[in-house]
From TrEMBL:
Transcription regulation keyword on record: yes
Keyword Cytoplasm tagged: no
InterPro entries named in the record: Bact_HTH_transcr_reg (IPR050679), Chorismate_lyase_/UTRA_dom_sf (IPR028978), Tscrpt_reg_HTH_GntR (IPR000524), UTRA (IPR011663), WH-like_DNA-bd_sf (IPR036388), WH_DNA-bd_sf (IPR036390)
All copies of domain HTH gntR-type, residue ranges: 26-94
Alphabetized Gene3D superfamilies for the sequence: Chorismate lyase-like, Winged helix-like DNA-binding domain superfamily/Winged helix DNA-binding domain
One function term, GO molecular function aspect: DNA-binding transcription factor activity
Protein name: Putative HTH-type transcriptional repressor YvoA
GO biological process, one term: negative regulation of DNA-templated transcription
Pfam family, one: UTRA
CDD domains reported in the protein's UniProt record: WHTH_GntR (cd07377)
Domain of life, source organism: Bacteria
UniProt entry keywords in alphabetical sequence: DNA-binding, Transcription, Transcription regulation
Length: 261
């Protein structure tokens, strides 16, 4: 039975054609994992497609839910299934490569991959900048900044915490904008007429603290990518400094290097 050809078409267990070999030395859960990996590798499962539930697969294969649950957790750890509490699993594409050759906002990048981005505003405040922020944005003494902290999710699964620092003299009243329904980059360009030109990024790694782990629904001590980014407009004015904490089990960094003679 052919699989759906688009991510919007419904997926059934019958269309997956999963099987279990009771005589194999390979554990049941790994048999399921291997078959799903192969379907994704051959592009027979589409990124963003709603997947079957644990119960549906267990019933179809006539096995308990335990090995299916183990398979789902393994596929989730590899980024091949996106699983959010209370929602059906969604087919992923593996760990998302974060490409630093293109200046794209989070929402734009996720939509380009066929995924559904969302944001939840954790906090928004007008405050005095610390030295790191003031230097990055090249602020003069006395200038204030807006600090917006957002949780970014993909298909309902939390993947990143992004804290943006914005000069108040440039983005007056931005705290009145809807940062949950609108892209920050879109607001910058459309509401404030700032054309984004380039960005400088510094990539590091940290461990998730208790608060970050709770927000990102991962374990304390889990690896996180830390990206410090300064974004400039077409006039080479620094208009945003951001700190992004990305789940290490959901992202990798992709950089192209060219040798100069």
């Amino acid at each position: 039975m052919p699989l759906p050809t688009t991510a919007s078409e419904p997926l059934t267990v019958e269309k997956l054609s999963l099987t279990i070999d009771a005589d194999s030395f390979v554990p049941y859960y790994m048999q399921i994992v291997d078959q799903v990996r192969e379907l994704i590798k051959k592009n027979r499962l589409k990124q963003g497609q709603t997947f079957c539930s644990e119960g549906e697969i267990a019933t179809a294969l006539r096995i308990s839910k335990m090995p299916v649950r183990q398979a789902f957790q393994k596929l989730k750890s590899e980024g091949l299934l996106l699983i959010a509490k209370g929602k059906r699993p969604v087919v992923g594409s593996g760990r998302a490569p974060w490409n630093f050759q293109q200046l794209r906002g989070f929402s734009e990048e996720m939509r380009r991959r066929g995924l559904v981005p969302s944001a939840r505003l954790l906090s928004m405040s007008l405050e005095d900048p610390d030295l790191e922020v003031a230097q990055a944005l090249k602020l003069t003494p006395g200038e204030r900044i807006y600090r917006a902290r957002r949780l970014r999710s993909v298909n309902g699964e939390p993947v990143a915490i992004v804290t943006s620092y914005l000069p108040a003299r440039i983005f007056a009243g931005i705290d009145k904008q809807d940062l949950e329904k609108q892209s920050l980059y879109a607001i910058m360009e459309h509401s404030y007429k700032r054309r984004l030109q380039w960005a400088e990024e510094v990539i590091g790694a940290v461990s998730a603290g208790t608060e970050e782990a709770e927000v990102l629904q991962t374990s304390a001590g889990s690896p996180l990518l830390l990206i410090r980014e300064t974004t400039y407009d077409s006039q080479n004015v620094a208009i945003e400094y951001s700190l992004s904490l990305l789940r290490g089990d959901r992202h990798t960094a992709s950089v192209i290097s060219v040798r100069k003679n």
